[in-house]
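Prompt: May I have another protein with tokenized structure?
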Amino acid sequence: MADTEWEEAEHGRWIIICSDAVGETAEAVVSAALRQFEARPARIKRFSHIAGGREIREAVREAAERRTFVAYTFAQPELTEMMIGEAAAHGVSAVDIMGPVISAISGTFHNPPLARSGLEGRLNEAYFRRVEAMEFAVKYDDGRDSRGIGLAEIVLIGVSRTSKTPLSIYLAHKGYKVANYPLTPEVQAPLELFQIPSRRIFGLTMELESILKIRTERLRSLGLHADADYAAAHRVVEEFTYAEELMRRIGCKVIDVSDKSIEETAGLIIDFIR
């Protein structure tokens, strides 16, 4: 490996996260920003629960060694001042993730911030709601118990490999109770799908080529023959025809997930139910 390539691998593909709490907010923002680039993904290192200058100096020193920047979220103004000073001393770029937004809110509504670290990580009602929603999603995943359809806030339906399970888990992390049910022509759809408001049901569909590719790769990963009926075009068309007719009868919103990320699809669903 050439020296320049080694330096890039060692230094240029790291991002340092600093927080006086867990650091999830900063990492989420950085990860979202990274998805806008085609370059190799960077590795993220967190410095969490920072309480003073020692941890800040350590984080900035590592950022300088790796020739990268620091993204930080501090509730305490003195920690922000330390970070700015330390970063300037080492020639490191430091990005305040939440500061400008907090300042804008405070200035607009004439209300000072609480300046308490870790508020997003407290064991509050929202936290326990997410835990309950995650347990719900696991319990009523993949049509294991159709009674979950009547209890769910969001119901996902679609043929196999249309991202129902990962979408359910993602929405559960947002605090929504989600049940998902696979549609196959051989199995009669549960009555619960016709007994709840259609606005709570979302049909997931996908382009034929996309789902054929996904199913073929799935078979290969399981060590099965790629020419099985599961990944055959005629079988997928049969399933889609059945699913489309059922979604039409239910009157639910249908979302094509072919070129959408889990986050994008979840955003559409959340916007719709709100």
